[in-house]
């Protein structure tokens, strides 16, 4: 675990990789605030002809909506460069599960999940439609429900918990999928509970773990990227702020890894004896690379 | 573990006890439906001069409001017979913690908690005031917060999770109390997620367990009842529907225990090899005792 500080170290790191996979929240930005020098550092990589992918556990936006965010904050990105846990969930249901056309998915989560499911031709309901106040009365079963997908949901309510619980309790053969297991995510200069926390009432009440978790550190998204773009893992680096998702993902996938300290992970946690997940390198912020363009 | 079915068994059970502690949801009623013959069975115990207490993990109503419910469903009860996890939480803060007068409690839960806290002179906020839609923007810290209390909350939302998380994350010395840890509770002929499930996002995001859980199977309420009413534990029986709260509570408190099958626990679970919490007796329903009054 080497901290990159000098121009020599930063340059040598860039030169030894062809491809960079980026986590977004906590690395490029936090909410709508882009971290200092991120645009310049990203431009440097583009100017050197590096391949760039964005690999986010954020399931709240579809990839198309995520691309709008890149435009809004003025960072270059193309649709085929964006991989999200919501899209990974939809792809998993379509290609791995081969989810039947006569079944539908109940979604506890935001528009990113329902839009990605619909884009893959998978019927779904819930999501934003179940936001707001609802009487928690008797919840009828729906025999068409074949799966429940849970992701970060800032409109979570008791009705959604009861509905998801009822479907999975009534028929344990129904699939229970979690877009990602991040316990927190960085926002407003602090952290808030993430998808992995929001889903725990269901695990506790059902006495059941999800059948699959699609986001980092699970390797689904990496496998898709490597297969589609024929990359050499040894010349690919995962850049992220979370040890138990981003860095674990890169390490387990055989990539080099770079941890930035602008998000969830602080230097004392990174260096603590309790920490078993070590990146290959770490750096104060991704913007540090911008110094090389001077 | 003996199943009581004959009049002889039922009679002998009653005669060998002076005092009966009752769980309510799943034993006497489910929602607003009183189970068959419960009124008659309760009247039989009263006519035999038995002492009766209601020991509920339900924190949604204050004891005064709970008494209204008894009146509404026409089951005799007095205020001093009712013990709830909300009241136990307020008593714990007042007498055990000696919660400072210049501090206040943030409540994730229903009116039962805020009303019981206020009845003990403990300042609190949140509760029903934080129901409904709220922007989850930056959450300012409040130095007056000394504790966060979480109970079942059918108005749970992301704002409350973020607020509770923020207070406990900002200052780990703040107390984190859970009224009760029931993962589910019986309602509408099925079960829904309980307080112990609703609280788990905080435990997961904070990587922290509550400092205290006040409801059954913790013995706080039993200690209060035994001390106030000078009861003989050997002649006292706990009647409940949940193994990991009611029956564990009675067993650990040195009482005899009776499990009813009208609530969360089904006979196959009770008898399964995995079940380590065995009641002294069990019966299909508490209403079965009404047959003795014929």
Structural class of chain A: alpha/beta
What fold name stands as the CATH topology of the largest domain in chain A? Rossmann fold
Morphology of chain A: elongated
Report strand % of chain A: 15-25%
How big is the Rg of chain A? 20 Å
Pfam families (chains A, B): Hydrolase_6 (PF13344), Hydrolase_like (PF13242)
EC number (chains A, B): 3.1.3.41
Catalytic activity (chains A, B): 4-nitrophenyl phosphate + H2O = 4-nitrophenol + phosphate + H(+)
Cofactor (chains A, B): Mg(2+)
Please provide a written account of the structure:
Chains A, B: Pfam families: Hydrolase_6, Hydrolase_like. Chains A, B: It catalyses: 4-nitrophenyl phosphate + H2O = 4-nitrophenol + phosphate + H(+). Chains A, B: GO terms for molecular function: alkaline phosphatase activity; metal ion binding; phosphoglycolate phosphatase activity. Two copies of one chain form a homodimer. Chain A has 294 residues and is α/β, with parallel strands linked by helices. The first copy, chain A, folds into two domains: 2-57 and 217-293, 3-Layer(aba) Sandwich (Rossmann fold); 86-213, 3-Layer(aba) Sandwich (Rossmann fold). Chain A has helices at 7-15, 38-47, 63-72, 85-97, 111-119, 158-170, 195-198, 200-206, 220-229, 243-252, 267-271; strands at 2-3, 19-22, 29-30, 33-34, 51-56, 82-84, 104-108, 124-126, 145-150, 175-178, 184-187, 190-193, 212-213, 236-240, 256-260, 281-283. In chain A, strand 5 (51-56), helix 3 (63-72) and strand 6 form a beta-alpha-beta unit. In chain A, helix 4 runs parallel beside helix 5 (111-119) and helix 6 (158-170) packs across helix 8. The first copy, chain A, is elongated, with a radius of gyration of 20 Å. Chain A starts with a strand and ends in an 11-residue tail after the last strand. The A-B interface holds A 132-133, 136-139, 153-158, 161-162, 165-166, 169, 183-184, 188-194, 196-198, 200-205, 207 and B 132-133, 136-139, 153-158, 161-162, 165-166, 169, 183-184, 188-194, 196-198, 200-205, 207.
